[in-house]
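Entry type: protein chain
Record version: 2
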Amino acid sequence: MKIGTDGVLLGGWITHQVKSAERILDIGTGTGLIALMLAQNYNEAQVDAVERSNSACLDASVNFSNSPFSSRLTLHETDISDFQSLGSFDLIVSNPPYFQNSLHAATQDRTDARHQSGLTLADLLKKASSLSSSDGLLGLILPHDLLANCLTLGKEVGWNAKHICHVRGRNDRPIKRNLILFSKLQYEPEYSELIIELSRHVYTDEYIELTREYYLKM
C-alpha cells in the first residue's frame, strides 16, 4: 500500500494538537505509517497498532523492526472488533476506510483499506470509546461529506469534538477532508483550515510545518 497524504496529515496534525501521550493505539495501521510517526514524536510512548490484512501486517512488521522505535511498537494482526487490551489508551488514532462513493480498488487489500468493508463508522467510534481512558483523545481523518454524521455518532458514545480542521488541496478547491480530534471531556469545538498546496508540488508553509519532521526532503 502506498503512503498517502491522509496518513501523513493525520500523523503530523495529531502531534501538533496533542502535547503528550503514554499509551497510543493506531486502528487500521496499514503499513504502519501513523504508528511510526507517533512513536517518533512521543519518544516514551508505547504504541499498539491493529491491522487485519495479513499482507499489510507483513509490511508493517518489517517497517517496525527496521525503525529505531521497534521496542515501543506492538503489532496486532486482528480485526479491531476482536481486539482486547489489558489497559486503556490515552490517544487513539485512525485513518479509517470510509470512501463510500469511490470505485473499489483492484485488490481486496486495497478495497478493505479504502471502503467500509465489515466495519462501520459507528462501530469504530464505539470501540474506540471502550478502549479509551476517561480523559482519552481520538484523532480521525475523514472525507468532508461524513463530518456531520461522524459528530452525531461520536456524541452518542461519549465523544465530543475538541478541534475540527477543514483540509483543502488548494485555496480555490472545496474542502476535501476533515481532521477531527475528539475528547471524552466537554469542549466547545475549535475550527481551523489547512491548505496543502499553493500549486502542484509547491506546498504551503502550514503543511510544511506539520510534516517536515517526517519527510526526508521537504
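Comment: Residues 5-214 form a domain with the Rossmann fold fold (CATH 3.40.50.150).
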